[in-house]
Design brief:
272 residues; alpha/beta; 67% helix
């Protein structure tokens, strides 16, 4: 940054900070941050302003690294991106007002402000980039967590496990179902696995294909797969689509599936 800009900001530091702080109070109202206590908001303002002012004399590579670290800290704290972007826009306005009072040469004023504007735009772009990347990572982690929860394998009896499926089954989820099934069969030493599709709203050709693949994989590792939860409308859809499910047992309810699993494992239910 040009030495005269650095000099101006250093000489007018108190004035700039005072005007900027007033602008940040407006930002607080527009961002609906009134629920944050005055003490916390004032401390945040001071830290934000001091950080930005310190960036004036920091080398570009170092400044970029410091900015990313600063953004990550406050992303995790839940501060909205709009607070920082609007705060920097307010800083831009304050600098223009301050510069116009101390520079009478219009050409010099435009040149100086052009450099300041480029600097502030760079900071805003970096903040947006860091915020976007961070939230993408968070969303991806949440997506993976939901996928893991969406295909649980539950041991119900010795040698018998149930995998209840709820919601739409796409290719990514079908892959996870397959992995969980095979790992669970080996881990729990399953003899029979019940795939419960009661909560699956639609069973089309693709879904049926994934289920058939999963059952075949279970058979190859030495266990039997039973498909349960076949409602009348799903049965009709399977017939109309010409899907062949004759290679493995099917039952209408989980209870009937468990009764069949008990027979296959030489067990039976008795009334006490």
């Amino acid at each position: 940054m040009q030495p005269d800009i650095v000099s101006l900001l250093n000489n007018q530091r108190d004035v700039v900070l005072e005007l900027w702080e007033k602008e940040l109070e407006v930002v607080r109202v527009t961002n609906r941050l009134s629920s944050i206590s005055d003490h916390v908001y004032e401390n945040m303002n001071k830290e934000f302003m001091q950080f930005i002012m310190s960036q004036v004399t920091t080398e570009q590579a170092e400044a970029k690294e410091e900015l990313s670290s600063f953004a990550e800290t406050y992303i995790q704290s839940g501060w909205p991106l709009s607070y920082f972007t609007q705060g920097l826009q307010a800083f831009r306005r304050v600098l223009l007002a301050t510069l116009s009072k101390h520079e009478s040469n219009v050409q010099a004023l435009l040149s100086t402000f052009s450099e300041l504007e480029e600097w502030i735009d760079g900071i805003i772009n970096q903040l947006v980039y860091d915020y976007t990347g961070n939230w993408e990572d968070i969303i991806e982690m949440q997506k993976l967590s939901l996928l893991e929860l969406s295909a649980p394998l539950i041991p119900v009896l010795e040698g018998v496990t149930v995998m209840p499926l709820i919601g739409t089954i796409d290719t990514a989820r079908a892959k996870l179902i397959m992995e969980n099934l095979l790992e669970g069969v080996i881990e729990h030493r399953c003899e029979v696995v019940l795939i419960d599709i009661t909560g699956v709203p639609v069973v089309d050709t693709m879904v049926a294909h994934h289920i058939i693949q999963a059952s075949e994989a279970v058979r190859l590792v030495g266990a039997t797969c039973i498909l349960v939860g076949i409602r009348p409308e799903i049965a009709q859809t399977i017939v109309n689509l010409g899907i062949d499910l004759s290679k493995f047992p099917t039952k209408s309810t989980l209870r009937k599936g468990i009764e069949t699993a008990l027979e296959l494992t030489n067990k039976k239910m008795i009334d006490l």
